[in-house]
Amino acid sequence: MLALASAVPAKAEQLAKDLFGAKKLPAATPPASYGFYSKGCLAGGIAIAADGPHWQAMRLSRNRRWGHPDLIRLIERLSREAVQDGWPGLLIGDISQPRGGPMVTGHASHQIGLDADIWFTPMPPERLSVAERERVSAVSLLKEGTLYVDDRKWTPAHAALLRRAASYPEVQRIFVHPGIKKKLCDTVTGNRSWLGKIRPYWGHHYHFHIRIACPKGSTGCTPQAAPPRGDGCDDSLAWWFTEEPWKPAEGPQKPPARDVMTMAALPKACQAVLAAPAPPSEAVVTLTGQGGVAAASAAPALVETADPASLLLSLQPADVPRPTPRPY
């Protein structure tokens, strides 16, 4: 009997991306980020509404409008203050899953609720439908087939939006395509200190990627080193305009980390985050912004709250009902 049992292969450990991707609501616990941006999870996350006074969230079916309360509040603030700078409103891409963790598709980072993608396409005056948000594409700012910005698409408002985002002390990095970084280096005058936060990276010509530092109280969050001093308009930027960064990788390619990552690779706290009860509904942990607006057509109605994070903290685990499946 023992010999027969030993011949049966052990069940493969389930991938972390499948476990976290299956969670439709956050962990009803105090807010905390665990691990590093590309290997961790999020407790006590809140969502940004599908529609706000100065934003529209895109790709609603992905359920990636969640983040640490510090990040969600910062996005709401950016949406308001960018309007003052002449930007008509934000189109918000992926932030994180309800409990963070690796995603089934897409990003390597965005795992601890401290990363957010904002489209370079300005928000249109009309409210997009749910279907349109799945179909409409962001517009690249590059000249086709080059590494350089298309001056027919680039405006001073793009630079002002990036300047505003970089002005917040909690923002540590903003990732953009090297061509966009070069455009800023070539055109920004006056105080250029904020350019040091603008970091060149592959992709990121359709959107920019905001990353905030580990929040206070998130002792399990692994910080990233601060960006190098200076404005970054130096030899490190020139490297991106050589052949080396764009050479195809040679030899067999390893699968993306998310496709092999199990719970054993994540901080131990992520087990508790995964097992934690959920809040009673998405609405009670959704930030709608000052005044609020109606949710996108065919999306659930969202209730404005003064501070979703405080509601989340007030919930007692024993009193939290199990959530019903979230409609799509």
UniProtKB/TrEMBL annotation:
<dbReference type="GO" id="GO:0006508">
    <property type="term" value="P:proteolysis"/>
</dbReference>
<protein>
    <submittedName>
        <fullName>Penicillin-insensitive murein endopeptidase</fullName>
        <ecNumber>3.4.-.-</ecNumber>
    </submittedName>
</protein>
<keyword id="KW-1015">Disulfide bond</keyword>
<keyword id="KW-0732">Signal</keyword>
<dbReference type="InterPro" id="IPR005073">
    <property type="entry name" value="Peptidase_M74"/>
</dbReference>
<dbReference type="GO" id="GO:0030288">
    <property type="term" value="C:outer membrane-bounded periplasmic space"/>
</dbReference>
<keyword id="KW-0479">Metal-binding</keyword>
<keyword id="KW-0574">Periplasm</keyword>
<feature type="disulfide bond">
    <location>
        <begin position="214"/>
        <end position="221"/>
    </location>
</feature>
<dbReference type="GO" id="GO:0008237">
    <property type="term" value="F:metallopeptidase activity"/>
</dbReference>
<keyword id="KW-0862">Zinc</keyword>
<dbReference type="InterPro" id="IPR009045">
    <property type="entry name" value="Zn_M74/Hedgehog-like"/>
</dbReference>
<dbReference type="GO" id="GO:0004252">
    <property type="term" value="F:serine-type endopeptidase activity"/>
</dbReference>
<dbReference type="Pfam" id="PF03411">
    <property type="entry name" value="Peptidase_M74"/>
</dbReference>
<feature type="disulfide bond">
    <location>
        <begin position="185"/>
        <end position="233"/>
    </location>
</feature>
<keyword id="KW-0482">Metalloprotease</keyword>
<dbReference type="GO" id="GO:0046872">
    <property type="term" value="F:metal ion binding"/>
</dbReference>
<feature type="disulfide bond">
    <location>
        <begin position="41"/>
        <end position="270"/>
    </location>
</feature>
<keyword id="KW-0378">Hydrolase</keyword>
<keyword id="KW-0645">Protease</keyword>
